[in-house]
Design goal:
367 residues; mainly beta; 4-stranded antiparallel β-sheet; disordered N terminus
Amino acid sequence: MVLAAAAVAALAGCTAGSTTTTPEPSPTTTRVPSAELAARAAHSATSLPDGRVLIAGGCVTDGCSEATARTALVSAAGTNAVEGPSMAAPRTNHTATALPDGRIVIVGGFLGENAGVTGSAESIGPDAESFARLPDLLQPRGGHVAALLPGGRILIVGGWIAPQRSSASAEILDPGTGTIGPAESLPWAADALGAAVLADGRVLVTGGQVEPGVASSEAAVFDPSTGRWTPTSPMSEPRMKHAVVALADGRALVIGGTPDDAALLASTELYDPVSGRFERGPELQEPRYKLPDGALLLPDGRVLVAAGGRTVEVIDVSAETSEVIEETDRRAAFASVTLLRSGDALVVGGYDDRIRLVGRATVVGLP
């Protein structure tokens, strides 16, 4: 498949609370030229220790009816991609967690449209040559969240488990010992949640879909030292299919989402772990959702958001602004963004408003 390059265009008419900017075309915005990086959405994209990026799973047909077990390896420079080893199961909306020892652990996910979810877990080493099976989850799930705990353990929370049924259950996978066990349940049952590991090692979990088309504003923090959840004050509005990014100053930024699968949110919220409260953050340049793997923290403390909308933007929390750096032709829901060693960002995949795969893989230069 020939991968389309994203167009860079000037923007006007910014939303309230943001600065008006007209981005210059970026000379480093390029496509990834490889037939092996097939169009996909709802996949994962995770950096390996040598700088390569593992693209795993995702849906590979318009309508997202078919999931894949195939992977691809993008070079550290983002200039080419080759086919990687296949996973044991096809999966979408799974989680991929990078361990301190260089392994990547992939857990759960949907097996395809109307095909249920998997409880399988597997890891791939730093050489990215093959996958190794890990213990199955106690509860098969998709649309869950996973967070790295001290000692390389992984907290797995919530998710869709059956038609019109989500779970509050949590479990802890220890890839080092090859064991898995139950953890205290989240105070509410949901899928399409958001999560981030705070600076002190605790895990913030937010919102999610509590019934079809209904999001929650609840939030709670898991303390790995006690194994207990502590509810926080709620977010200012219900959100699901949003993103949460831990900031360098210890706070966490909650980005976009939807309250009802109809209205999309351009708002953000800042969680303060000291007060346990949320406050309003910078407004996005456009409303966006379906971005669990579409936002990341940049080395300078800003946040890059590259999924769920028709633009790529950079949020500066300290300046209370968000700046569009690239405009694309179609919305890219469930796209991924990964930081390359060059300091550029690799943006892969997604689907548009009609659930058609966009087939896009680009390296975006950052201002």
